[in-house]
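Could you please consider the sequence and fold following this short note?
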Amino acid sequence: MEKGELLYRGKAKNIYSTIDSDLVVVEYRDDATAFNGLKKETVAGKGVLNNKISSFFFTLLAEKGVASHFVRQLSDTEMLAKKLLQDFLKEKNVTLVDFKLEFGLLKGDIVLGDEISPDTCRFWDDRTGEKLDKDRFRRDLGGVIEAYEEILKRRIRYEA
């Protein structure tokens, strides 16, 4: 699958559009950061390893019945992935930049055992670019509660 427009450049990954609006190409880079970006280096081979390790675990999770965004590995540094929550959040004028989840074992089954909130996701307003997540706290922007309330308000509009 051919990469299209660069949609997002993170600390260690790039996300590209594809001809299929439901899919993206995730490209793993060799960049490494720590301490809120104070320490930055290029670690040769890190992108290849992260892609192969991630592909392995996503395949393993699928075999155990845990669906994910992973479609397939495209190259040493790229995977094809489904867009997650994009349509729902687009209707709310919110971009989901990234999010982290934790899983655990419960009686032999892999289960999601984390929260999905502005503490674990990066939500940005589509129109203004305003951060509606924990970045408001990290970067001393103020308005943490107001941003979290805005995310909740947009969700409730969906349920109404």
Summary: DSSP finds four helices and eleven strands in the chain. The helical segments are 46-63, 86-91, 135-138, 144-159. The radius of gyration is 17 Å.
